[in-house]
């Protein structure tokens, strides 16, 4: 191709390049226009979403503020209700203590003749006190709920006579293993039993009427008849045992059918609380020799078994605690003083605060003047307010 032909093609190529460049620019402009439209749409949507989010946030803040006000109002109402309930309980306590105790037995001629015959048979013996203890319970001064441990029924206590701080726990109404915690702190803080030593008894116990006294465990074994076992806690041996000299025994408390003998301790020593078929309406009391387990003296008390859930002895006076079939507030409703130094009308009606159910055990500690109670699996301490007896 000659030079003149190349010169002819140059204008044609320039025209083609300009046409392509124009098309490319138009394409780029179209793409930029679409991109601007999308950015504008995104901006509009973002603004709308921001507005909706701000409105929702304000709505949630308003709801939270309303909920906080309602929570404060409900808390104030709950505190006010608690104050009213506490005041009502105090008023009920006051009104109930102003009413005389209902009679512990039915007054009829047959019962009177039976009481007279029993009194003549026993020569109306009064107990000769070993100590100068002249106190009786006035009221529950304070209550402390320690924890919830084990079954709904059980027993926990300290040594009623010694200075040991060990806590003994009997879980259930039929078992052969006692948990021993070194101090109250270990028992309170740890939910498991890993901090507790275990004592396996040679015979299983029955009921919740056991007692730790002066380094020995006195517990009830059922083998046809009921036996009181004296077990040395130091060397883990049975020291003595005695068949309880009562025929046809029945549960001593109407609301605790698993307990046939309640071994108790007070300032005077050891006692056994029981019931027999011979006088199935009322509770019986016996003084025990802690060394030989011999029965030193026995009494028929005027305290009924019906609706009784537990009992303890304070300064030689039996205090029987009553409740209802549908658990309500426990109360001491019958007091029997074996020495005759406390008139029945002078005995205080002690009411225990209602908490969970009914007590399966109540152990009085004469050393600490408090009661270790087991209430529906909760371990509770009742600190007692004492007063002097008014001698008859």
From TrEMBL:
Coiled coil location: 57-98
GO cellular component: extracellular space
Signal peptide: 1-19
Superkingdom per UniProt: Eukaryota
Cystine pairings recorded for this chain: 133-315
Pfam families membership: OLF (PF02191)
Subcellular localization, as worded in the UniProt entry: Secreted
One of the protein's GO biological processes: signal transduction
Similarity remark: Belongs to the OLFML3 family.
Name this protein carries in UniProt: OLFL3 protein
Gene: Olfml3
